[in-house]
User: What shape does this take?
Amino acid sequence: MKAIHVRCSFAIFLSLLYVGKLLFAQTTPQRAIAITVDDLPAGAANAMSGSEILDMTSKLLGTLHEQKVPAVGFVNEQKLYKMGEVDDRIKALSLWLDGGFELGNHTFAHTSLNRVTLQAWEEEVIRGETVTRILLAQRKMKLRYLRHPYLDAGRDLQTRREAEAFLTSRGYEVAPVTMDAWDWMYAGVYEDARKRADVALQNQLVNSYLSYTTSVFDYYEKLSRDLFGYEPKQVLLLHGNWLEADHIGELVDLLRKRGYQFVTLEDALSDSAYSVPDDYVGAGTGWLDHWAITRGQPPQNGPVFPQWVIDKSKELHRQPPAATPQ
Ligand SMILES: [Zn+2]
Assistant: This one.
């Protein structure tokens, strides 16, 4: 009798669990996102030693690996050339590939297609391939993604299309961005607070970053549904910095709670959204904005970036640079 009772309770427990699971599935949408990390080996590479870049990279990739989150990193090879530190900087890129991640090109010197001639920009793309191509070839991989610096994809349609044809001819696919919470703006202030061991400010910045990320996702998920009737697989733009190295785990948790699964960039770009017409030209912005503007429906009332972070960043840049050996 007792055994039957126990079995019955267990069966009820299992069915409750099943109902709970169904409810969770109904309230949490199935979403997918690919992570991309720009400005490698590090956004602030010029102000960092080779060993600090290695520490930062190991920490960032350690969390991504643990959480089984794929990522593509985009390289500015100019940042590799610092006297006596080239090996460490190239090693930081190797850590990406050895960890099973991928690397793409972000031009040699982070050059905007909107600010130089097409020919000069194309040379920047080619110059940015040298080391990355070798590292990829050593692992039987190909350089296949290009991320536009500042997301500047061309100031007029002719330049944009010619640049795209050039990229295709060199075997590239453009890596669009649909989600961007300006982590680079937080990162400069965060890295300064970290150096000064100002924990209170670091926490304040992380909280603000995660809450601004939430506003960005609320806004662009809705814009996605308005444009497509569903939410395409998204592409998130992050940067190589200590803010991400220290806190990307919290960002991953936040996104998982919103129902996101982490997919490769290749998987995300297989979504048909990435082949809808896009005639956007002008100041760099995300691809959801491109599609909305192309359709004649410019997005309105976007999330407002916290002014205090911009002010703190400006304050930092006003300070005279610290004395460093030349
Ligand atoms: Zn960049």
Q: What stands out?
A: Strands lie at 31-40, 71-75, 102-105, 145-146, 173-174, 179-180, 234-239, 260-262. The radius of gyration is 22 Å.
